[in-house]
Amino acid sequence: MIELPQQLVRVGASAHSKDDALEQVAALLAEGGNIDPAYLEGMRVRETQANTYLGNGIAIPHGTPDSRHLIRKTGIAVLQLPQGVQWGADGEQVHLVVGIAAASDEHLDILRRLTRVLGDEDGVRRLWVTQNPADIVEALTGERPPAAVTAAPAAAAPALPFSAQVTLPNPLGMHARPATMLANMVKKSGAKVRLGRDAALSSGRSADATKLMQILGLGLTRGTTFTVSSDDQATLKAVVDAIHAGLGDDLSVTPASAAPARRQRDWQPATPGTTLEGVGAADGLVVGVTRQHAPKALNVPDTPTDPAEAAAQLDAALKAADADLDNVIADVRAKFGAEKAAIFGAHKELLADEGTVQDAVSRILDGHGAAWAYQQATNERVASLQKLDDPTLAARAIDLSDVQRRVLRHLLGLHEENIQTGGPVILLAPDLTPSDTARLEPDAVLGFATAQGGPTSHTAIIARGLGLPAMVAVGDGVLDVPDGTPAILDGSAGFLYLNPTDADVQSARDRMAGLARERETARAARHHPGVTRDGVRVEVAANINRAGDAAGALDAGAEGVGLMRTEFLFLERDSLPGEDDQEREYRAMAAALGDRPLIIRTLDIGGDKEVPYLGLAREDNSFLGIRGIRLCFERPDLFLPQLRAIARVARDHPNVHVMFPMISTLEDFRRARAILDDVRQELGAPRIPLGVMVEVPSAALLAEQLAPEVDFFSVGTNDLTQYTLAMDRMHPQLARQTDAMHPAVLQLIRLTVEAAQKHGKWVGVCGGAAGDEVGALVLTGLGVKELSVSTPQIPGVKAALRQHTSQELKELAARALQQPDAASVRALVKG
Ligand code: PEP
Ligand code: MG
Q1: Cα(716) to centroid(ligand 1), Å
Q2: Which residue intervals define the domain HPr in the entry (predicted)?
Q3: Which atom of ligand 1 has the smallest separation from the CA of 543?
Q4: Residues forming a β-bridge with 334
Q5: Is the pLDDT of residue 676 over 80?
Q6: 167 forms bridges with which residues in the sheet?
Q7: Domains of the chain (ranges plus CATH)?
Q8: Are strands 279-282 and 470-472 parallel, antiparallel or unpaired?
Q9: Which residues have CB under 8 Å from 1's CB, separation 6+?
Q10: What distance in angstroms lies between residue 719's CA and the mean position of ligand 1's atoms?
């Protein structure tokens, strides 16, 4: 074991030249009894043979093999030069001169220690200026020397004294963006922070929170509870708060809305031949011929290189790749917007991951070439990402492969090439990287199908941005399709039809033209009221969270707001919004809508929506716990100011309606209404139309009793489906089955509508089912009077209603109720 005594670390030194620095570090080594002073000459000669600059302001001067006999004892000494000194002809500034005296192969062992710091740019910069030699000793040896005065406890395991448990709220799990934010935050704090999936942080399932790949490697999905521990209490609190706040992610996005909705076939061949099935990733139907694209395997030889030289090559390649990505980001931002550009921002973070760089450098120091070392280090990480259970996190493997290829191209001197297709084709590939996809030429590629990949991958997101029909996860069979095979790709439903008949090609072309016309017609008629073909009125409203979204909703044709999710006022800040803050937001929304209805839903916190600063107790089963109205009963400090703010606005805006979430008993509703009545009386507010959300099966079963007492019902199909089918709405594996068109869910909606009609009340639907075409039609057939959907869905829903008479839809709903499952219901509309 090679030691670095503190006295051989000289901080705050200065050197007027490289030679001066060599002299000083050699003097240190001589002082430590490591070398004969004549070894300095060997160090000088070595510098003439090869530059010992390693990167990040570190140089590792050492003697030539001929001077080894002048070594007395293997060891190192460090000269810190806060002002730096110019080292090589390229003007590299060196701030840490690590003089090495190694009698044999211990040389490599010493170098390996340097990997602890080499990839950590911020950490190294701290070492350039620290006034405490112990920091340098610790960084290079992994062990902190005991402090001179206070005897430090000689704790063997680096157990961190402060810890807390957190549950990850991010809809897409701990993916690259939040992980990067966390790693940067921890790095900046200077404290030690570890994350662990098990209580025992020393087990293999723990990560250093400054290391992006280690964090990703934990595979933390939404709802995973894990331990955060730190050596600093304030940092721990800041980290826990940041995790609760989503680390920059929008916590309102559900996995289901992040991926394209499950789609039925818009078109089918009359004479189906060979058909390959995958997962629809980007909407659209396209006719063309196929063309295989196999990414060229990069031939990466393992050419042993001088470690210092190889480390410098790697450093240069990483820098060049980083510069490339800056250009890609600018380009993608200009073409597709900031959201798509952020994908490549995440690539920069993968590139900068310290753990990966250190691992590569460590292999370099074992004597391997830079390209080989980097490929091995990244391959291991790609493989472990691929193994993660969560498909969204596993999809990040292709991002890392993309980054890997970018760096390897620089190391191997290869150019980045656009995919050449030789004309407009349907591209078939094992998988495509986000970079390849972003560079696809629209006139060379009509659409693509990949053997691997998933609908939430960055590749799929870019394809949607490009408007390029795409399907993924088709399986390896797609790779056997010969080039030039005529085909029809349906990127909405995920089908690839091979060798279609001429008649089917014509019919697909007709359908494509029809779809384009339909979209245009729907857009042109978006401001017409929602009605069926025979003129039966169905109000099409918008689900929005903020007053600022109202103008966009109205422009898309919204006839009101059917669901304002007020919890976002609470989720998007780090302290409680006051009564005045809330009043301002509700008032702005009510005013923006004029006389169109505004349905404000009272706070629905709990379940998947966590508000860190409320300090709510963690629940084993949060969807079945103190959520929605139940929480409001427990917390009048939250409920009363909200009701007061709403009542104050209702005094001036008669369009204000209120509804309560998560009502599961009659008692719930009466209790909530009584509280609102008190508030209204106190403030002299008028009667406010009052509704109950039907999200729990018991509310539907009690609709007969609730109906006389409410003004309306609004069905939350997202929750009603999860509670009826006992399927967590966030569960990735159950996502395909969690379909509100299941006849069991439809039966509960039927009960609700019948009870409401008996008492002259109306029923709306504000869950996701209202916005999909089949859902809108079946729900209207069941007698629903209002469909509240996301803004972009408004024109399409109105257009779908105009296609059918109310009688047709009633018949559709009656048949839907008789079906065995959701797929059969969908097939009634789009067989
Ligand atoms: C629902 O459950 O369908 C609903 C609209 O409420 P949320 O999605 O906000 O829970
Ligand atoms: Mg709900």
Answers
A1: 5
A2: 161-250
A3: 5
A4: none
A5: yes
A6: 225
A7: 6-141 (3.40.930.10), 162-244 (3.30.1340.10), 275-293+420-510 (3.50.30.10), 307-412 (1.10.274.10), 531-827 (3.20.20.60)
A8: antiparallel
A9: none
A10: 6
Distance CA 713, CA 802 (A): 24
E strand segments, 708-748? 712-715
- Å from CA of 640 to ligand 2 middle: 21
Q: What is the pLDDT of residue 260?
A: 42
Question: Angle, to 10 degrees, between the axis of helix 354-365 and the axis of helix 338-352?
Answer: 40
Residues whose beta carbon lies within 6 Å of some atom of ligand 1: 563, 565, 604, 695, 716-719, 766-767
Residue 636 clears pLDDT 90, i.e. is over it? yes
The catalytic residues are: 62, 175, 458, 766
Pocket perturbation via mutation, ligand 1, pick of 717, 766, 788, 789 by most ligand atoms within 8 A of CB: 766
Sole residue written with tokens 């570890």:
194
Q: What would the pLDDT profile of 544-593 be if each residue is shown by its tens digit? A: 888 888 998 999 999 999 999 998 788 767 789 999 999 999 999 999 99
Structure tokens at 400: 């890392």
Distance CA 193, CA 200 (A): 14
Cα pseudo-dihedral 331, 337, 341, 342, rounded to 10: 160
Place of tokens 């002259």: 760
Question: What residues have CB less than 8 Å from 528, skipping those under 6 apart?
Answer: 557, 798
Length of the chain in residues, anyone? 831
Per-residue CA distances from 58 to 122, 135, 285, 525 (Å): 13, 15, 56, 66
pLDDT tens track for 107-139:
555 666 666 566 677 778 888 888 888 888 887
Q: How far is CA 87 from the centre of its chain?
A: 42
Atom 1 of ligand 1, residue of closest alpha carbon: 716
What is the pLDDT at residue 253? 56
Nearest protein Cα to ligand 1, atom 9: 565
pTM: 0.58
Buried b (16+ CB within 10 A) or exposed e, 547-577: bebbeebbebbbbbbbbbbbbbbbbbeeebb
**DSSP character string of 90-154:** T--EEEEEEEEE-SSTHHHHHHHHHHHHHT-HHHHHHHHH-S-HHHHHHHHHS-PPPPSSS----
Burial class of 435 by CB neighbour count within 10 A (0 to 12, 13 to 18, 19+): buried
Rounded CA-CA distance 371/363 in Å is 10
Q: How far is CA 634 from CA 39, 696, 804, in A?
A: 77, 19, 46
Q: Using alpha carbons only, what angle is made at residue 141 by residues 140 and 147, rounded to the nearest 5 degrees?
A: 100
Q: Which amino acid makes up residue 266?
A: D
Q: What share of the chain is helix, strand, coil (3-state, %, to 5)?
A: 50, 15, 35
Task: Select from 608, 695, 696, 745 the residue to mutate for testing ligand 1; criterion: most ligand atoms less than 8 Å from CB.
Answer: 695
CB 453 within 8 A of CB 398: yes
**Residue pair 454/392 in contact by the 8 Å Cβ criterion:** yes
Query: Per-residue pLDDT for 149 more than 60?
Result: no
pLDDT (tens digit per residue) in 20-35 = 999 999 999 988 888 9
